[in-house]
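Lab manual, section 2.4: Encoding a predicted structure.

Procedure: take the sequence of the chain (201 residues), apply the prediction step described in section 2.3, and record the output as structure tokens. A sample record is shown.
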Amino acid sequence: MSEAMSQRYRSGFNNRSELPNYLVSDPRRRPDPVTRELAQGFGWFSIGLGLTELACGGAIARWLGMPRSAPVIRAYGVRELLQGVGILGASDPTPWISARVFGDALDIATVLPGLEGHNPHKDNVLIALVALAGVTAVDVICARNLAEAPLAPSEKVQRDYRRRSGFRRRAEAMRGAARGFKPPPDIIGPEAMRPWTLTNA
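Recorded output:
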């Protein structure tokens, strides 16, 4: 074994780039079924919320007592639509769910000024903030579970080797190949493994 190869094995393949290609996992995640379904649900939720914000942005802004925020709410509707399509269409929704967390923070920062001044709809603002906080908490849990899910193995690892026996020749050709083999006389094994005739000689 060459010195370079020995050093590579001693290092224990600490560097991911040094791993053989067939051992390197691809970036797709394998989340548990609950997390996968939760992410899919967030995809549809984003699309529904996005359509609502686009169609009713003015009404939502007036309900919050912040009529000047109507264009912002409609812009957030476009963002929600993009995130929903991204979550449902991506093989790995992790970055899209993480984007939802940042979007939630942006929503809270936008609604929070509604508590200031003489806004007659402060109660509605509080309701919206509580709802946003709850959605944000679930988004964070989903994003964390997705980020910590194990990686899927590469396609080469996923190949089906069930038809391989591990022998160089077919089983029929191997049968009886060791018949007549005599162990060298200088090899002494455990007594239980010695030929019967030698053990009882």
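Check your result against the sample. Helices lie at 3-10, 33-63, 70-89, 94-111, 122-147, 171-174, 196-199.
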